[in-house]
Amino acid sequence: MPLWSAHESSGAQFDRLARGSAFLGLATPVFVFGLCLILAASYVVPTWPAVGFVPLSDDPVRNLQSIVLPALALGLPLGSTLCRFMRASMIEVYEQDYMRTALATGATRWQATLRHGLRNASGPVVTVAGLQLAGCDGDPVADIDVLADPANVVLIMQEGRQAKHTLPETAG
Questions:
Q1: pTM given for the model
Q2: 146, 154 in Cβ contact below 8 A?
């Protein structure tokens, strides 16, 4: 998605959609993604295990099904960051002299992107991915533990329906 977004002009419809979805992924907390995925999975595929965990030794298929939603909930915000970094790196690479040279030799824009641009743009993206991986040491476990217990999910959803949230007033 970031390659296509950077490949298109900055005002193209796909580029705006990609930037908007990446921004939404960055702005939405992980637990909100988790709750939305639980609701969507339980509505679209009622037989899918939306909450709970099945050990691998009990049922390997149900085990894989039970870790898909937490993996998506944790991976979407991280993927949004990588998407934005990849798009920015590719736009910078498109302005370099070696890309103009590759295009002048007769390569199409996609060939130049895959042969020359992707390799040079991936440095910052791999660096950020490594930093994100280092930051995933304890926080995801807490998110998965909260969402793995069906009682917690029910309490969170009930609180969301019943709460009367007020905005704090500031003097200014």
A1: 0.63
A2: no
- pLDDT tens for each residue of 8-58: 555 677 778 878 888 888 888 888 888 888 888 888 888 887 777 778 888
User: Which residue stretches of 95-164 are H helix?
Assistant: 97-104, 109-112, 118-135, 139-148, 150-162
Secondary structure (3-state) at 166: coil
Length of the chain as a residue count: 172
Distances (CA, A) of 41 to 36, 38, 50, 68: 8, 5, 6, 10
106's tokens: 């007769």
Tokens of 60: 């390997």
CA distance 86 to 123: 9
Within 8 A by CB and 6+ apart from 151, the residues are none
Reported as a pLDDT band with limits 50, 70 and 90, residue 111 is confident
Strand, helix or coil for residue 168:
coil
Q: Which burial class, exposed, middle or buried, applies to 45 when counting CB atoms under 10 A from its CB (0-12, 13-18, 19+)?
A: exposed
Q: How far is the C-alpha of 113 from the C-alpha of 3, rounded, in Å? A: 8
Indicate the residue type of 28.
Answer: T
Nearest 5°: phi and psi at 170?
-115, 145
Mean pLDDT of 124-130: 86
